[in-house]
Structures
1.
Amino acid sequence: MSDWLIPLSDLDYGPEELAAVQRVVESKWLSMGPEVAKFEAEFAEFLQAPFAVATSSATAALHLSLVSAGIGPGDEVIQPALNFVAAANMTLAAGAVPVFADIVSLAEPTIDPESVARLIGPRTKAVIGMHYGGHPCRLDQLRELSAQHQLLLIEDACHAVGARYSHASNQDPHNEAVGQMTGTVGDISAFSFFSNKNLATGEGGMLVTGNAEFAELARRLRSHGMTSLTWDRHRGHASSYDVVNNGYNYRLDELHAALGRVQLAKLSANNERRCRLLARYHERFSTLTGWIVPFVESSLETSAHLMVAVAPTPEIRGQVVEGLRAARIQTSMHYPSIASFSAFQSCRADALRNSDDFASRAISLPIFPTMTSEQVDEVCEVLRACAS
Ligand SMILES: *Cc1c(COP(=O)(O)O)cnc(C)c1O
């Protein structure tokens, strides 16, 4: 609940979500049961991915990605400075060290493969790409670099559930090759189902991989490193267990999985609605001078998680944030550079000119599936009035 006239994001929740929760409550089975198993199977099917492992959050999935792939002490993981802090925190939690790369440009705020190449050293073991706002990062080039230097490629796909990456589309916008879903191009990837994401369950995440060994290890580490699960024992499939790894409790519960299944069924239609709203914003911004709208010319298929614009100056960004707040329109900023945080001062980084510039001028505007195009116009009118 909020008193924003137009919030930054809003849930598309209705009677289906209520019925799903009721079904689980009535079943009296709350964790590690059939809803989680079905959610994993349906999510894997949706992505055309071999393995999906549900987790309590994307942060947990990122941690499991690194640990399951054997990233640990002495290793460096190159990742964008312009990201939510979870990937960097989990790199440290795995015992490894994050190294921060710059973004391509203000118009393409995803990790710059040339910056990655400059940072690769003898300790580099993995690269994390993040699909900013739901727009695929340059996976082709990252994959090439990873193959060349034998690095693991991890996708932080938290913004990008339902986005698609077409391999040749960066070079050829008319390429009609069927693209792979984001989260299935790298070796291992993480999705988030936090309340404000495209597929929202409150808390929740998913690790996706094509590697059977990573999947098996992640599944075991998710639940204390134990060899058999409560559900299997309940069904009489196992009576005892061994602990073969030092694991965690990163399980998703049945209530969240049931919500996830309903939200997954709505996802494609909701992503289409987001794309139409994004197109409307782009149209309105085309008559504003001095603003940069990221990915406006991209031919890649986005999940339109965010609507972000880069103001001509930090001062104008500040003016617009204040003006929109006064009109009860909520905004946000994705993200401050991680390299600027106190806890990451000792980490190695490339020159982060674009990331710092972006962080000082970017503003995130409302976008959510139940938003109307009239609301987009309203946001843009207030913005236009206070931008000059
Ligand atoms: C939301 C988000 C996360 C963290 O997801 P949780 O499910 O809240 O742990 C990590 N990375 C990015 C890019 C995100 O947007």
2.
Amino acid sequence: MNNIPFIDLKAQQARIADELSKKIDAVLTHGQYIMGPEVTEFEEKLSAFATQKHAISCSNGSDAILLCLLALGIGKGDAVFVPSFTFAATAEMVALTGATPVFVDILPSTFNMDPDHLKLSLEDIRKKGDLKPKAIMPVDLFGQIADYPALSKIANEFNLKLISDAAQGFGAKLGKNQAGDFADMVTTSFFPAKPLGCYGDGGAILTNDDELHKILLSLRNHGQGEDRYDNVRIGINGRLDSIQAAILLLKLNIFESEIEARNKIAHYYSQRLRDAVITPFEIENSRSTWAQYTIMSDNRDKIAAELKQQGIPTAIYYSRPLHQQTAYKRFPVGGGILPVTDDVANKVISLPMHPYLEEETQDTIIDAVKNSVDARECATN
Ligand SMILES: *Cc1c(COP(=O)(O)O)cnc(C)c1O
């Protein structure tokens, strides 16, 4: 019986162990737990990594989205176009501002926002006339970059802001470009299980826009103005703490090599699983961060059960798309239906994925998937 972790944070911790305790000790010694020097240093390094002028660290990936929406003044009567096949926070933050999330379908290949369906949804909302389209928020699902060239073209055409929810795809590339080369603002999450995670909650926003940067800094700290005793707007407590920034500094150093390791593993998985299941589609000349390695099969429950029996965990992201969930059913669905979203939600299943997955373990997982599929074929023949 195996005991394979879905994500192995211990292996990564061992790699940075020595420096880690030194970095954390330094924070305990200087005592600036909030907005200490590590936060500034991390923001500088993060903006360089993302090739964006400004990085604004914050409390988590959800708050990063909320701060972007607040910075754009989005609220009641506004429509923000989001996928339904995503983590709840993408639409949740829109609803929290009082604006209306409008669900858009995805492409069956990449699971990312379908530009054609976005156009249809925009025209749909325009025709109804009760909501004002304000922004598009695609997600780089499972680490694969959304179709920003097409999406930013639509944003320009309809005069909309483009916010990239890169909680899973921070570091993903299309050619030499990252999401920030197309979007007004990019958000990410440092939740421990994300490709770049800390040891608690954390997040960040990246932008090239000086004015948005200024507003975001204020919003992150209760809407503070130039005079710290005069709050000029309604904001939140959205700061990242110094210990998390210290940890992230170390993790950012090895992030690039970890993305490479994830790619190597993903490509090996795909090469050996291609004949057994539907393996992830990769956009030409792109680099995924492989937040998840997600296959599709009509028999995913059988695969999950057999792998579980062998001590191999799997996960389903997402078995229930947002437009089917209780809190989100009342929000509009572009064009009335999301056939691709509904279909893939019944077929996806994610396999263990992290940069420290050993070759032997990869083979164990692959063999288990192949056997569960073969066993099914024998049974039905
Ligand atoms: C994880 C995630 C978030 C939220 O990040 P938190 O740091 O957990 O708040 C938002 N969007 C997507 C797509 C995510 O995967």
